[in-house]
Design a protein that fits this description.
Two copies of one chain form a homodimer. By secondary structure, chain A is an alpha/beta fold. In chain A, about 45% of the residues lie in helices and about 15% in strands. Chain A contains 20 helices and 15 strands. Residues about 1-45 and about 375-380 of chain A have low confidence and may be disordered. At the A-B interface, β1, α3, α5, α11 and α12 of A face β1, α3, α5, α11 and α12 of B.
Chain lengths: ~525, ~525
């Protein structure tokens, strides 16, 4: 079955991803970020996402376990970023943050197009080296997006450092007949991919009928697009099987997403203007090259208008993020961008951002009051329940240690005290009268306070950033692998033991525990269910 | 008074930083990140930092308000990062995180040395373009440090994109006689900077007596070091007043730190092996170029040993971060690095990291139990106090909206509900019986719960990342400036009014309020003190 057919049928792989991705068979067909988690997502998840491919809001389930593989198109670095770029980055930054907040392990890739016709043209105008110019605007983009509180992606690949992967994918397409060489250029043969147009709801025949051939291009069909362009004198160029040249725009996203996320991943995002032809071309390239269906959910964000008109330089209503930051704080601009649903067009005007600014001020004012109330000498101030029960405040200890020339061993000791106390409380083994007198509500408040302390310490130490079940699962698998223990066997025994315990067959449960001990596996029962560890 | 003398006298500027930095006088002498905050740090701050310059643990006070300007040396990108780099990055990442946790606004700059002799040599060995090789290892470094949960710095400048600044600083040093040109190279004249050796506790005369001249170099004095090196054929080169060439290693940190942090900033960090000569040379360059004292607190982290021996390739005990990540999780390695104080040498051996790994497992296990207990049907589960009082849970509303195709306007409505409720509680205007029956402890618990919700929403939206007082202060100043209101006059009147209120002179207090209203300023009194806003 070819890729186009699979895509049409809504094919989902029954094989694990690393099987589809065929490790070792091609530099493109591998999944470097090994998935080790469970094969079911968080049960509470009720997230629905509008999928541009199906034009429906769908319940979102990751392809594998609770890991979400996500790619978003980044900017071409030939100038400062404008409001439209800002919106695209903020939209997918919120998607990234929310997925993580809901306990998913997100692998987020966002590229920089750092070589391109526009870059070469601009560099020529400025008398600057094209690669130096684009490197400069990568940094400018980082600065602007940083001012909008956009988090870095996990991986931010650039075209110029991924030539091998790009060339390998183009070569695959030439080899399997989906692309052809013409005078040192390589073109994708759109006619060979019947599903072309699926994402944007266009039909290949209509598209072919309506298209014109540019005189300068040596294409078989007007819709065919360049995968590789032969270099003109003085342009930056890379060696390839088709001579010195550089990639066309579209191929980079296919090659880089496949490198880091595999041949089939969960979410691909970008601005609505990228849906056709850029994303359509990505699908055509990737499906034809890897045989996998590429992307499960396509997300597109709407335009930015300015005073109800399309933003454009000729209308004189064109704003860079840098411009707007002179007038407003980054958070005000960000808040404004969140006031409209991501798929709708957003209308930028001073009044709207002023309003957002006032809202952000109000938030901060509330935070200030809250901090003051909870910290200051105030009739509402409650004593820390933790301190009441344990006679110590681990967060104070922690700060005392860190205040002393960043004494992290002391800080870790405070963490250890906190953990010991929390586990005592969870096991209801605390001996103090204060604990014994507490009702369940107050005990839960104490645990919430402790959770807050753990988060604070984790934030400073840069630890505990994973969802606990995911981390522990992965650790169990790794430590089992180290000792040559078969995880499937252990899991099967654990399930059998769970069944025995449900049936109150304690003898069988104990026998399984013994059997597991013989394998080097320790079982721990608890109110939160049974867990296993490698000795 | 010259820079060396100022440094010796522990001179602190009485002028604001932008005065010292002489905007417009030189591309190096400016402070692009305008400081707008208060001129005193948080009063609760009791942080003490060991300053390599004074060899003492000192109480830390930022040079200006609560903004901390911090620079840390990054890696030279010619190979994968090793454990020593990992420690340096983790150490200053924790410093960065802790300062932010304690409410400072940190501006953190960490460079990449992406052109250098080592890079050129390695590229020649590999038959690779030097700039492509170093770009590749920048990404590898980002990946490794990301696996150790090291946050990106606010600004991560590279040498190749800061040639103008570097050349300008070298030119300044040539022009003011602190450097000289020799056959297309430029050298720093160490003899002209009598304080040379101050940081590392060496004396210039001893150093000069002990040094040898390399035959290949055209220096006046053996200690003189290259600021600019003429290019050999085939090497990457940039135009300069001294011909085509590239910078010496040391000048980049002076030029890039000054560009982003100004001529005098708070903290400069790096490994102990960088103290001499790299940091000594930075001081000599910067003080001589800007006339400002450069850095207030120098921090140096200790070596990494492996099995009690110095890590080195010849001893066969050399480990890259990539190597270690094959065996251990990033968080285990990070935890291990925190178990030793940053200034002490740390001894890496498998057992130590295994121990750290077990501690991290224990932390996660505790977190898992805590999450389970606080979420699940459990005798300890307490009802949300917020829900009890307000009959709604804004976090549930928030998730409901975001689950619906990332409906941020709905999420913002949940935030608005939360804020309204919090302010009602802070003003004690809540009408429900549940609130009226609550004692101060329970009310504080409710507010803590609300603070947690605010933080969660802020985290997802990417908002409220600033310390509230700092943000509000800045906003007041900006909005006053927009309307041409004199902030100093307003602050003076606010102080006068505070004094009047202390003396119970209500007539005077009201008169001042009227006067402020005439200026377009609104005064708000509250339990948390009086604040002012521009109309």
């Amino acid at each position: 079955m070819d890729a186009a057919k699979k895509l049409q049928d809504g094919w989902r792989p029954s094989l694990p991803l690393h099987e589809i991705a065929k490790p070792g068979k091609s530099p493109l067909w591998y999944v470097p970020l090994e998935y080790e988690g469970k094969d079911t997502g968080p049960e509470y998840m009720t997230l629905r996402i509008h999928n541009s491919l199906t034009r429906e809001k769908e319940i979102f389930t990751p392809l594998q376990g609770n890991r979400v593989r996500m790619y978003a198109c980044g900017v071409t670095t030939y100038d400062l970023c404008h409001l439209g770029h800002g919106r695209m980055y903020v939209v997918f930054d919120v998607v990234h943050r929310y997925l993580e907040y809901r306990g998913y392990e997100v692998v987020f890739v966002r590229n920089y197009t750092d070589i391109d016709d526009k870059i070469i043209t601009r560099a020529r105008e400025k008398g600057e080296d094209p690669l130096a110019l684009s490197a400069r605007f990568v940094e400018e983009c980082r600065a602007d997006m940083g001012a909008l509180n956009v988090l870095p992606a996990d991986i931010e690949p650039k075209v110029t450092t991924h030539m091998d992967e790009i060339i390998a994918m183009v070569k695959t397409l030439v080899d399997n007949g989906h692309a052809y060489v013409s005078n040192g250029d390589v073109y994708y043969n759109v006619r060979k991919f019947p599903e072309y147009g699926k994402l944007s709801g266009r039909h290949l025949d209509d598209l072919l009928a309506g298209a014109r051939v540019e005189v300068s291009e040596q294409k078989n069909d007007p819709l065919d697009f360049a995968l590789w362009k032969t270099a003109k004198p003085g342009e930056p160029a890379w060696d390839s099987p088709w001579g010195k040249g550089r990639p066309g725009w579209h191929i980079e996203c296919s090659a880089m997403s496949t490198k880091y996320l595999g041949g089939y991943f969960d979410i691909h995002g970008g601005g609505i203007d990228l849906q056709f032809p850029h994303h359509e071309n990505e699908i055509a390239q990737s499906c034809a090259a890897t045989g996998a269906p590429f992307v499960r959910v396509w997300m597109h964000n709407g335009h930015v208008n300015v005073n109800h008109e399309k933003m454009s330089k000729s209308l004189g209503n064109f704003f860079t993020i840098r411009d707007i930051l002179k007038e407003f704080t980054g958070e005000s601009i960000r808040y404004f961008m969140l006031t409209t649903h991501y798929r709708s067009p957003i209308n930028f005007h001073d009044g709207a951002v002023r309003e957002a600014e006032a809202r952000v001020d109000y938030c901060y004012e509330t935070l200030r009051r809250l901090n003051h109330r909870l910290a200051g000498a105030d009739p509402l101030k409650g004593q820390s329940r933790f301190e009441l029960v344990f006679g110590q405040n681990p967060l104070d200890e922690f700060c005392e240690a860190m205040d002393d020339d960043f004494n992290t061993p002391g800080g870790l000791a405070a963490l250890a005290n906190l953990l010991r106390a929390v586990n005592e409380a969870l096991d209801n083994k605390v001996k103090t009268p204060a604990w014994k007198q507490m009702n369940p509500d107050a005990r839960a408040d104490l645990l919430r306070e402790a959770l807050g302390m753990l988060r604070d310490m984790g934030q400073v130490f840069g630890l505990f950033t994973h969802e606990p079940n995911t981390y522990l699962d992965q650790r169990r698998k790794t430590s089992a692998a180290r000792k040559g223990i078969d995880v499937n066997q252990v899991e099967a025994l654990m399930n059998e033991r769970l069944e025995a315990r449900r049936n109150k067959d304690w003898a069988r449960s104990d026998a399984i525990r013994e059997q597991l001990a013989g394998l080097g596996v320790i079982v721990k029962d608890g109110a939160e269910g049974a867990a296993w560890w490698v000795e």
